[in-house]
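tool_log.txt
---
The assistant was asked to compare two proteins side by side. It first ran the structure predictor on the initial sequence, then on the second. Raw inputs and outputs are pasted verbatim so the downstream comparison step can read them without reformatting.
(1)
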Amino acid sequence: MSARNGQNGPPPRVTVVMSTNRLSPYLAEALQSVKDQSFTDWQLLVMDNRSPDPRRLRDVVATVPDAVVVPEAGHVVSIPLNHGAALARGEYVTFLDDDDVWMPDRLARLVAALNAEPGAGAAYSSVDVIDSHGERRGALFVSDGESGRDLLAGRYPFPNLVSMLFRRTELLRVGGFNPAFRYAEDTDLTFRMLQYSRMVGVPQVLTLYRRHEENVTKVAPTVVHDAARRMIRMQLWGAENHPDPHVLADVRANLAALDSRDAADSVGEAVDRIRGGRAGAAVAMVARAARLDLAAAARETWRRARLRLITTGR
């Protein structure tokens, strides 16, 4: 391994940025997956976003040669991630969560993808889900030849931040992460990359995203949808003045697609509330679904009713 974090030598090609506010039980495994990379020209910056035991965190990170721990003041995650990107010396920047795992050829394949496409601002891969024991539980995202317009218009789900490698100049050019968002800050960044840069998909699964009880992203779908809706509406401001006339139509289409997904999820939430004996709260969710997309709400209601009929018919 030839990780290079010193400030006096030549800069490494890739800077790996991690932000953490805890001592994750999966941290050592996440760091080991970086050390196991076949591509070795990287540096690691760990942004300590007010973890409860900074000394222990430094001890674990010290297993990575020349890794740098940078103290932070407990901000929303966008701020330490932006700080790490600003400190990066590499041509490329990528972000690692403290509980995820990289496949050994992740950096090699993503660097090769960007090397082959000098005009692209980021590359991303397919992602699988793993559980707390490291067992695979299926796909989280599959890259399958989708275009940038497919992504921007919501015809295909966005790739996950954990799968991306950014060209540092392009990441900084679009402004990095927006600290105004507590949720959807990664989606907001992807939106801007799609509008002002180009992204390259790699079909192989190169990142394993861990789902467990302590996932910070484990929040109600309606909360996530509301945050995403505010974010997309902000995107509309810039899209109205974008030189490409397709961008505004695509962003509007993405907002409509979000409303449809939200309506379907709201129907599901209404069903859960009925089962929990909360009829009044269920009515509120039905009203939300109908307001967002009546047709999508009706389709989801019919789908669930039909599924129940099939199940009880057995």
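(2)
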Amino acid sequence: MKFAAALLLTTLLSSALLARPGLAQAADPPAVAAADPADRDAIRARIAKAKEEGSVSYWDAIIAPETEDEMLPLFMKAYGLPASFKVKHTLSPTLGVVTRVDQETGSGNVTIDVVSLASAPWVNGLVKAGHVMTYTSLEAKHYDKAYAAGLGMKDHYTPNGGYMFVPTWNPDTMDFKGKTWKDVLGAIPDGRMSINDAPNSATGLLSYMGLRQLLDLDYFKALAKMKPQFIVRTEQMAERLVNGQDLMAWGGSPGRLLQYNARGANLKFILPEDGILLLGNATFILAKAPHPNAAKLWMDFSLSAEAQAILSKREALVSVRSGFVSPLPDYAPAIDSLKLIPMDWSKVGPEEIRKAKAEWQSLFTP
């Protein structure tokens, strides 16, 4: 009888302890167990609701299928989601993402939950129009420097990384020893270089606007005289370098070079010493997201140290998470090692973008 009474008392005490808010439970998934005790109950509740929602839809212009294949199992495990839970990822060109989101928010028929895109003026416009959910990620405390630098808005969006367009080339077809943007001028014969097709690439145009803070009109006039090919996708830029169509890409992506080099290419790039524009890949949840709880889990996961390591390693995204150590510093260096061009995107609106587009066209397609 004494043993039975003791067992009953132990069971009651254990149940009471497990019921106390903030204490880890035996069945807690890793994300809950690793969270601050004060946040655990909220995460448990969010996971339960996400399981009911059953899926999350995520659109972006960067994450390749191979990267997705590595991220998804870790996301599912982190929150203990069942195999029936679906992550519907759509990779699209930047303008494709913008068009789709604008259509959905305009019609009110929203099917997308989470979006990541490196177009701060566009995202700021969505925030102003009330189309972005007010949500402070549980990972936000690690991104205070990014918010201070204007790369994010704490209660609305946070960059899951940053990327830049830089000079790239194939050393098998040319020898380039330059270290700055100006060293590109005259480095190759006319017609053997590609550049970002700014009028048809939102990020290409924003990159042009940022580099105009560093390089004057005479520089771009000289660049236009080199008769460059206009390319939208950086994958195509890299492909043209590999097959010898071009000798250089003025605005190539280290991430795409990483992926081509992993398949046997030998492409190179420089991080210009005179300055780099870092485009923050803003991650946010649409205000009318059909799966809001699952969306918050996905956003939190993409900003976690674990996911940042994958994005840095596979996509060469520069993490803006405080204290992050890049697993691939040659392609995705520490943000503090870069000479960044300051850009206040809060002051860039439709009129400024229209003027920049017109200026680019007057230079390259007069």
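---
observation on (2): Strands lie at 55-60, 86-91, 114-117, 158-163, 166-169, 193-196, 229-231, 248-252, 268-269, 279-285. Residues 1-24 have pLDDT under 50 and may be disordered.
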